[in-house]
Design a protein that fits this description.
This protein has 401 residues and is of the alpha+beta class. It contains 9 helices and 23 strands.
């Protein structure tokens, strides 16, 4: 389990170095296997030995030079005079004059020749002498920016992709930052982070989330835990009814599903999730997909409660009814379904299924079905939050590999 320190700080004022926090958590039973640094340099490059009892390994990625890798703003994108697949980007990075760089980033081409951009595009800017990963080489190959002529135009700086910064493997385009990023700020100050990688052993499900770790950290550090997200229903209560007017709900396997909750959310717009959410998911080890899927994963990591979103209009009614149905039951003998990873799954009669009036739409607690997945055309979603038998979940997951 990976917990970014930036996320943990939303719940706990951390008043000790990251290394000391890792030691205290480990001695309390929350074993921190590694500390991964993103854009930051660890105190010791080879490893952190914070006590005679605890050994925590520091995984140091690329440390972003505070003077050479900063937040920039692309003011204008101009055609390259000698190459159709390259452009010239005028970048404000806090100096008296903007700096022009040559780039082939495809996500800049739509801005070519459109004059002064308003608002400018916030980006990560690397100056001459900065050390980055080579975005065109497989793996992580370091390079240092030097003056060069690219198709006859001088260039000694770079607008950066996520791969060049060591954030992800994405290198097809440069990384855009939110508008609140301050031009000239060291990138390490804006989005540098450390990630605690835990190996939690035993039956400690309450620790498998950010709030669970935050609760322990607050106790160990002697500081109060910020509980706003945990008390939202006290401040903004919702009506809970056994049979809502938007779904017919039946739990046919109560021994494996003691409680099933669903909410209908209308008029959603599918698109990318915010930059900060994508970065937190990446650091926690999950791939961003779209705003709805990302929100369900984010809440699961934050609170320890898995969620699943169905396209509401893909759910079918039962026995000619007027509204979609959700029936929670065991799989039928010989039943199959295609999961979100486009795999046809042969089901076992002891597996718990989420079904509608036409058949299975999800394997409870494991994976959703392809037929009811959220897509770009989704407008209304049924959001599932349920409690399933954990032993059955584990057995099902292992059987399906």
């Amino acid at each position: 389990m990976r917990i970014p320190i930036s996320w943990l700080k939303e719940y706990v004022d951390i008043n000790v170095p990251v290394e000391e926090l890792a030691e205290r958590l480990t001695l309390a039973g929350l074993e921190v296997e590694t500390i991964e640094y993103i854009g930051l340099a660890p105190r010791q490059a080879a490893g952190i030995h914070v006590s005679s009892k605890v050994e925590t390994t520091a995984q140091s990625g690329l440390a972003w030079d505070r003077d050479k890798i900063v937040v920039g703003a692309i003011l204008e994108v101009k055609p390259h005079p000698n190459a159709d697949r390259l452009v010239l980007a005028d970048v404000d990075y806090g100096a008296e004059q903007p700096h022009t760089v040559v780039t082939g980033a495809p996500n800049l081409f739509e801005y070519k020749g459109k004059g002064r951009l308003s608002p400018p595009l916030k980006i990560a800017f690397a100056k001459r002498g900065a050390t980055l990963y080579d975005g065109h080489q497989p793996g992580q190959v370091l390079m240092t920016l030097k003056p060069a002529k690219i198709r006859g135009v001088k260039s000694d700086a770079m607008v950066c992709s996520e791969k060049e910064l060591g954030i992800s493997d994405e290198h097809e385009g440069i990384m855009f930052l939110p508008d609140d990023a301050l031009v000239g700020m060291p990138l390490a100050d804006y989005m540098g982070d450390a990630v605690l990688d835990f190996d939690i052993k035993g039956g400690f499900a309450h620790l498998q989330c950010v709030t669970g770790v935050a609760r322990e950290a607050a106790a160990l550090l002697g500081v109060p835990m910020k509980r706003d997200v945990l008390t939202i229903l006290d401040r903004a209560p919702v009506e809970v009814v056994e049979q809502p007017d938007f779904i017919e709900l039946l739990i046919a396997g109560p021994d494996l599903c003691p409680r099933y909750s669903a909410a209908l959310i209308r008029n959603v717009a599918i698109g990318p999730s915010p930059f900060w959410m994508q970065q937190r998911l990446l650091r926690a080890g999950m791939r961003p997909i779209n705003n709805i899927v990302d929100i369900t994963n984010y809440v699961m990591l934050e609170l320890g409660q898995p969620l699943h979103a169905f396209d509401y209009h893909d759910l079918r009614s039962r026995n000619g009814g007027s509204k979609p149905a959700i029936i929670v039951r065991r799989a039928l003998p010989g039943e199959t379904m295609t999961t979100l990873d486009d795999q046809l799954r042969k089901l076992d009669p002891d597996m718990l299924m989420i079904t509608d009036g036409g058949g299975s739409v999800a394997i409870a607690g494991v994976m959703g079905g392809l037929e009811s997945e959220v897509t770009e055309s989704t407008t209304d979603i049924l959001l599932e939050s349920a409690n399933f038998n954990f032993l059955n979940n584990r057995r099902t997951s292992q059987m399906l590999n």
